[in-house]
Amino acid sequence: SSFPLDQKHWHAVFLWCQDEELGETMSVSSVNCLFLSLWVTARASYSVYTAIITGDGGTATNASGEVTVFVSDPSATGGMYTVFAVGSVSGLEADLSNVTCSASTLACGLHIHDAESFAFIGNASLWYPNKYTSTGSAGELAINYIVDLDSGDMGGRLFAIHDSAGSPGAGGILVQETSDVWSVATAEIDSSGVDGSATLFTDGTVVTGAGKVSGLSADVTDCSATNGCGAHVHSGTSCDSTSGQGGHHYNTEEDPWTTTGYTSTDSDGDARFVFSVDSEGVDIDGRTFVIHMNDGTRASCGLISSAPTPAPTLMPTMAPSSTPMPTAFGSTSKSVCKFSVTAMIIHFVLGC
């Protein structure tokens, strides 16, 4: 199929009819029809890779840390993969600034290379702009980026952190994770029109995640409201109500979810996000995942599962109607509550 595997909308419209005999001597029956519309948003899980970062063989000999990389399926246009990376490293060069990291093309680069040839995975020009812009006084760095590539084969590759001169400073080999990987598809809340998907990975006390959202307000840049632009794991186990969705899910003293989510939307109201949260080892299986509007309103919700899950929304789209329909001449049928599906239309609607 040429459709993107990470977002498909199936729209089924059912016409449900109840045939009731109005009387033995009557030649018409009443057919009560109800249209039911079933939306299912099916999302494929992203591939998940992790790497332990060290300074072995690099210039940052004391570097240590960990990074998680999520890779989406290619989209229909251009066959591009979306690569999300999140993690933290310490022991790099201390107190680097944006000026220092602009010294060369590879300076302060965050790239994925072939472990043997050191060739870029994908087109090199797509990687060149991907840089960190500063480090702390102990050489600490928070990694958080999203890049679109023409290759998605990351297993056994080198996640490289370049120093300010462009030389390899630290890195680690990416290993694909096949357990403790979770998936969620979200459906609109209160007719918001917002749906999304995310893949999450739990490792010890840390929850990392990456995902996409559509149907948001266009060209959003202000996410300063409480829960504005948020993408959070909630404590609830149902999306049916606010109380069922619960609040942010964590065991720490401070709420770690206050800054996770997307930071802007494009002209179509689409957004992407990646995050890493230390929630003290909470169990996320069966919990709600909630996406917020930029004003903090809850816009979309789904239940987290260890496998890709659809997000169905069943809603009436037409009030029941009673329409006289002719029966066969001379019919004396006494059947009551005879049901038949008289129409079913399946639409395959592509979304991005």
Overview of the molecule:
GO terms for molecular function: metal ion binding. This protein has 352 residues and is mainly β. It has 2 domains: 132 residues, Immunoglobulin-like (Sandwich); 126 residues, Immunoglobulin-like (Sandwich). Helices cover 2% and strands 45% of the residues. It contains 2 helices and 19 strands. A 7-stranded antiparallel sheet has the order 14-16-17-11-12-13-15, with no helix packed on it. It has a 5-stranded antiparallel sheet with strand order 7-5-4-3-10, with no helix packed on it. A 4-stranded antiparallel sheet has the order 18-2-1-19, with no helix packed on it. The chain is globular, with a radius of gyration of 26 Å. The chain starts with 7 loop residues before the first strand and ends with a strand. The N terminus and C terminus are likely disordered.
